[in-house]
Amino acid sequence: MIDEALFQQRLNDFKPEPLITSVDPTKEIEILMVAEDDDNIDLAKVNYLNVLNNNEIKKTSEDTIREYGVGTCGPRASYGTTDVHFELEKNLAELLHKEDCLVYCYGFVAISSSIAAFCKKSDVVFIDERANLPIEQGLDDARSKVVKFAHNDPEDFKAKVEKETKKTRKFLVVEGISWRTGKLCPLPEFIAVAEEFKIRVFLEESHTLGVFGATGRGLTEYYDIDPKRIDMIFGTLEGAIGCIGGFSAGSHDAIEHHRLFGSGYMYSASLPTYLVKVVLKSIELLGDAPQKFSGLAKSFHQFLEEECRFKVESHPEAPFKLIRIEPKMDETKVHQYCKEKGVHFIQNDEGLVINLNVRLLDEKERLERVYEVLKGASELIA
Questions:
Q1: Is residue 60 within 8 Å of 277, Cβ to Cβ?
Q2: Beta-carbon count within 10 A of 152 CB
Q3: Domains 34-49+288-380 and 55-284 share a fold
């Protein structure tokens, strides 16, 4: 028998933590929506290769909607796959020099599902201490043992590996460009350690696909690494490619396994066919844009460091520039000054984030205006 009085007392005493943190309705939340015109330049939007402004891509999207509609409303594993999905998977596999590929509806899901489909509870997975949220989510789902090494430090990775003596499967997950710091992964050094200890390598390429390497193939092209040395390449299509969705590329056997065990592939509605066509067209139009963008990224980085005297955390060829200014009050001052002058970018917990657009190379007046505003902002805190 249950003591009714005791039960009521315990029920009254039960005060669980809230499932979510309430938002203060009186607190102002800034939503950055910039209408680009003669007075405003949008460097907050991720549009590295300017595909969002491409009329040929817009026309392709419109034509596909007229033929296929706006979506299948079903997951890839059932009735969510069209011939266009297969075409994109073939093209992405060829671009990345991998045997096969999967296309996901959402970039976050592509990354987390790619990890959870292969890593299990008994496995050990080595990740960077600054790993992005989708990687962490994938490992939460996998319930593997996670070992973190110092940011972009192959030597610390090796030291951590040497301590894991248990005979079990081991994986390394690295980001081409860190979402949090903008720093470039020293991939050859990491692969050397992984091969020495027979560790499988997963490479996340969200911010390197399309902008690194002569043809935009990413870090394998940039470092001249045989893609076969990497077990899985995955990431979002939401950077240089200018669409939503994600991908995962590997061997035929790995992708077949992925089709059966990738939760996002099995249970999430597929990427709408017109957006699949957008990705296909974006890849088709890459041309020399990756090389042009690399030149812009390096010259922009040099300007920020030499002319503005800013501390730029990100790599010189990174598609976004992460600037850290102390004290934070000065960081806010720079952000506010540029916003008032019509140059818009992001301020977050990591610092100031400027997303580059290759279009600036063809519009010299706008690029010079960006330089002028940033230089003026730097003089405020000199």
A1: yes
A2: 22
A3: no
Burial 356-379 (b: 16+ CB within 10 A, else e): bbbbbbeeeebbebbbebbeebbe
CATH code for the domain defined by 34-49+288-380: 3.90.1150.10
What pLDDT band is residue 71 in, cutting at 50, 70 and 90?
Answer: confident
Residues 6+ apart with CB under 8 A from 247: 89, 92, 101, 102, 103, 104, 110, 234, 235, 237
Both tokens assigned to 363:
């519009």
CATH number of 55-284: 3.40.640.10
Inter-CA distances, 64 with 272, 276, 320, Å: 10, 9, 31
For residue 128, which of 94, 77, 172, 82 has the smallest C-alpha distance? Answer: 172
The rounded percent of the chain whose pLDDT value lies above 70 is 96
The pTM assigned to this predicted structure is 0.89
Mean pLDDT of 187-203: 98
> What is the pLDDT averaged over residues 14-25?
74
Both structure tokens of 51: 């595909």
The structural domains of the chain, with segments of one domain joined by +, span 34-49+288-380, 55-284
